[in-house]
Amino acid sequence: MNSINESLNSINESLNSINESLNSINESLNSINEALNSINESLNSFNEALNSINEALNSINEPPNFVKLYLAPVPTTA
Q: Per its UniProt record, what SUPFAM superfamilies does this chain match (predicted)?
């Protein structure tokens, strides 16, 4: 009976060690996840900035309305 108890204690210690290892891995993965979330937020901000720059460049390239009217085709009757 004592031998069974010692075996069970050994198994319990092994399981505790595995549990501690898994907890450590989980903490590491949580840290990685937080870092990736931070990177994602930064990339989203950068993307928004690029979109703003793109919109500004598009507005510069867009001719004013009076130029559009001047260049518009003249309707003709057949």
A: Coronavirus S2 glycoprotein
